[in-house]
Write a structure and sequence with these properties.
Blueprint: H1 2-25, H2 33-62, H3 67-92, H4 107-128
Helix pairs in contact: 1-2, 1-3, 2-3, 3-4
Length: 129
């Protein structure tokens, strides 16, 4: 699990740098300020949780049997896909050659819930020692 969390964290953090640069340069000319701000929110949360997964992997190294730490990592991993992924789609949907339905909007709070539950799981792991 440690290596998986490390690789996912590195991937999320690295991709967030690429997506941030893409948003700041390529998307700036085709999206509104609100859309860019929305896109940047996805980038920020992806980067933050990529770093969190790297730090979490250090805790998992110290306590490989902690199910709560493993749950935290899984929830944060899913959270990035749901939260940041849906935000990217929502911010850039005007660029798609097809219509993105309103079904994508409710996915964002599910990703946020995964983040919250991930942080709570990490806290439970710390409290339980």
């Amino acid at each position: 699990m440690v290596r998986k969390f490390q690789l996912i964290g590195i991937t999320y953090a690295g991709l967030s740098v690429i997506l941030g640069a893409f948003g700041a340069h390529a998307l700036k000319v085709v999206l509104s300020i609100d859309q860019i701000n929305t896109f940047e929110t996805g980038v920020k949360y992806q980067f933050l949780h990529g770093l969190a997964l790297l730090v979490l992997s250090l805790f998992v190294t110290q306590n490989t049997s902690s199910k709560w730490l493993q749950r935290a990592g899984i929830l944060m991993t899913i959270g990035v896909v749901l939260f940041s992924g849906s935000i990217y789609v929502l911010a850039t949907r005007s660029l798609f050659p097809f219509t993105v339905g309103n079904w994508i909007g409710p996915i964002t709070p599910l990703g946020g819930l995964c983040f919250i539950l991930g942080w709570i799981s990490w806290a439970i792991a710390i409290v339980r020692g």
